[in-house]
From TrEMBL:
Binding site for [4Fe-4S] cluster 1: 188, 191, 194, 248
Keyword hit for Iron-sulfur: yes
Location within or outside the cell: Cytoplasm
Catalytic site: 133 (proton donor)
Family: Belongs to the QueG family.
Chain's gene name: queG
Organism of origin: Parendozoicomonas callyspongiae
EC number: 1.17.99.6
The protein's name in its UniProt record: Epoxyqueuosine reductase
Cofactor note (record): Binds 2 [4Fe-4S] clusters per monomer.
Top-level EC class as recorded in UniProt: oxidoreductase
HAMAP family cross-referenced by the UniProt entry: QueG
Length: 346
């Protein structure tokens, strides 16, 4: 099994993963942390966080027979996305860098399935199932136990050689592989740059995130109107937010991705808000095909862009774009457009 574990990690690297580790399935401490978080209603409208009982923190209940989890990570940050420059250009749309290219779920699940088949060639038939942020799995807890990093104060997994600009994936298995040494030292020290930089004060304490205040939640998970108290702070962030990653000192070690699937499409890394706002629904569906951005839907896309345009400079292009959507057949979109226009009248 030790020899097989070594081979598995080598095969994972051949498939494009930057790192792989093996975890047991005891997540008791993390289960309690999740329960406390849910009890405080920090999950907002993400009802799926509560709808699977203990399966999220008990892999053996989610997939009976599971005794180990092979955890992998894959870098996703393109090398030339100029995150800070776009954030400081209020007429531009800032889109979280994980979503600029192809949907990572499909990319990583395919590679994990290939890894499972490669193991099968070696040992014969065995039980396995691949997961990529698409089922009740405590992926960061498992990755920490597999030695891939530690959960930072911003609640993201941090790696001392790669920062945090990477995706995680898991292969649940019934093979009794030797587990890796967990990362127990939290290497954030006294740094709290992530808390200070958060535009909406969503990081309320060390390892404590109130998702209801998080821009990623507000622009992706929330299906209703964005609360007024957060609209100015959202700035030009129209799908997700990367501020707590951009500021993190450990990301000086992050390496550009070599995956062409994650490279920006349709100039989404540098487009102007007004141009995106005038996409038709057909254009939105075409240009976000196979993209995580589809998750917000066209109505949510317009809602988010309207907020960005309300925070943009008062140019003729911005005003005309907003006025063109005043009669859009959605009360939510109309309400955000009116709010945006009001910002340019003050």
């Amino acid at each position: 099994m030790a020899d097989l574990a070594s081979k598995v990690k080598g095969w994972a690297r051949e498939l494009g993963f930057q790192d792989a580790g093996i975890s047991n399935i005891d997540l008791g401490q993390h289960e309690q942390h999740l329960k406390n978080w849910l009890d405080k209603h920090f999950h907002g409208e993400m009802d799926y966080m509560t709808s699977h009982g203990n399966k999220r923190s008990r892999p053996g209940e989610l997939v009976p027979g599971t005794i180990r989890v092979i955890c992998v990570r894959m870098d996703y940050l393109p090398g030339d996305t100029q995150t800070v420059r776009i954030l400081k250009s209020p007429e531009k749309a800032y889109i979280s860098r994980y979503s600029l290219g192809r949907d990572y779920h499909k990319v990583i699940r395919k590679r994990l399935t290939q890894l499972g088949k490669r193991i099968e060639e070696e040992v014969g038939s065995f039980g396995y199932r691949a997961f990529v942020d698409s089922a009740p799995v405590l992926e960061k807890a498992l990755a920490q136990q597999a030695g891939l990093g530690w959960i930072g104060k911003n609640t993201l997994l941090l790696n001392n050689k790669a920062g945090s600009w990477f995706f995680l994936g898991e292969l649940f298995t019934d093979l009794p592989l030797p587990v890796d040494k967990p990362v127990t030292a939290m290497r954030c020290g006294s740094c709290f740059a992530c808390k200070k930089i958060c535009p909406t004060d969503a990081i309320i304490g060390s390892h404590q995130l109130d998702a209801r205040r998080c821009i990623s939640y507000l622009t992706i998970e929330l299906k209703d109107s964005i609360p007024l108290e957060f609209r100015k702070a959202i700035g030009n962030r129209v799908f997700g937010c990367d501020d707590c990653q951009i500021i993190c000192p450990w990301n000086k070690f992050a390496k550009p991705t070599g995956e062409t699937d994650f490279l920006p499409r349709h100039k989404l890394d540098s487009s102007e808000l007004a141009d995106l706002f005038l996409w038709t629904e057909e254009e939105f569906l075409e240009r976000t095909a196979g993209s995580p951005i589809r998750r917000t839907g066209f109505e949510g896309w317009l809602r988010n862009l309207a907020v960005g345009l309300g925070n943009a400079p008062s140019t003729e292009k911005v005003i005309h774009a907003l006025e063109a959507r005043l009669d859009y057949p959605s009360d939510m979109v109309q309400e955000h457009v009116r709010w945006a226009l009001e910002q340019h009248q003050n």
